[in-house]
Design goal:
six-stranded antiparallel beta barrel, 10 helices, 33% helix, 28% strand
Length: 306
């Protein structure tokens, strides 16, 4: 997938089918729109184009970082993704001008696909009705996709965020149509895991929504390679107590133990895909008891992932 950053770098493509939206989380509702755009583009021998925004127009915390979102969108077969910087200046662009200047003049859109509830332009004045009306003027077809519901509740990034934070990863996975995951950079830690016999990769998440504290069975994506492992998320209460670590911020730590892995991966990007929560985080009376519990957690994770 070709990625274009900024309005001024847009170039017209062959018969563009444009999917317009934030697509935060790229959940089931988003995927329906994106796959429809890809399918239509292939049908007419055109180009599937995603037009998205960063940061989030509603200033909400994103489910995924921009890079993580782009990875998922690319995996759906999209040809081009245009990322527009949602600045204060851009927020003032009127909906009609956005359609004329960007969708028509810049992209030359033949089709525009959006969620039926999607709003755009200054003061959110643009909607599917305006797109359809403008399409009659400028010669493109606009289509609005209905919101997908699960158990009567509309699928939304807000709902998915709440589920992930509560540790309900299986419920979130159903709405996402893929495993809950976080993308981050491997950084240096205290190296205590090595002492306990389970060396972990410490992860600095890229603006991601983090699951609730606890131990999880996970799959790891590192470059083109896939591994299995166990992930810890929490404030390390046992370590803080016995090593007398005084961290006033009490940051949440994300650490992953990769099975049968011994490479140096500091500075590399790593994606953690959560399969199942094993247990909540807890404080142990000693480091020895913590090590014994880690051994049990690893055994549980291997059974889950087998």
């Amino acid at each position: 997938m070709k990625i274009i950053y900024g309005i001024n770098n847009i170039r017209k493509a062959r018969k563009p089918v444009v999917a317009l939206g934030v697509f935060d989380g790229v959940h089931r509702g988003h995927r329906k729109i994106l796959r429809a755009a890809v399918s239509k583009a292939r049908e007419i021998k055109g180009t599937s184009v995603v037009l998205t925004f960063w940061p989030h127009p509603q200033r909400e915390e994103s489910l995924y970082s921009l890079e993580h979102r782009l990875r998922i969108i690319s995996g759906l077969g999209v040809d081009i993704c245009v990322v527009i910087n949602f600045s204060r200046h851009f927020a003032k662009v009127k909906a009609k001008d956005f359609i004329k200047d960007i969708l028509v003049n810049k992209l030359g859109a033949g089709y525009v696909y959006v969620g039926r509830d999607f709003r755009f332009g200054n003061k959110a004045q643009g909607d599917i009705a305006l797109l359809k009306k403008s399409g009659q003027v400028y010669g493109f077809q606009a289509k609005g996709f209905n919101i997908i519901k699960v158990r009567g509740l509309p699928i939304s990034s807000t709902l998915i965020r709440a589920l992930i934070r509560k540790g309900n990863i299986k419920e979130a996975e159903k709405l996402l149509a893929q495993p809950v995951s976080i993308l981050g950079t491997v950084i240096r830690g205290t190296r205590l895991g090595r002492i306990l016999g389970y060396p972990t990769a410490n992860i600095d998440p890229h603006h991601e929504v983090i699951p609730a504290s606890g131990i999880y069975a996970v799959r790891i994506i590192l470059g083109e390679n896939k591994f299995k492992g166990a992930c810890y998320i929490g404030k390390r209460p046992t370590v803080r107590k016995h090593l007398r670590i005084n961290d006033q911020k009490k940051n949440i730590n994300v650490e992953v133990y990769i099975f049968d892995f011994h490479q140096n991966i500091y500075g590399k990007y790593l994606e953690i895909r959560f399969s199942q929560k094993i247990r909540p985080d807890k404080k142990f009376p000693s480091l020895a008891l913590l090590a014994a519990q880690i051994q049990k957690d690893v055994i549980s994770a291997k059974k889950i992932l087998a």
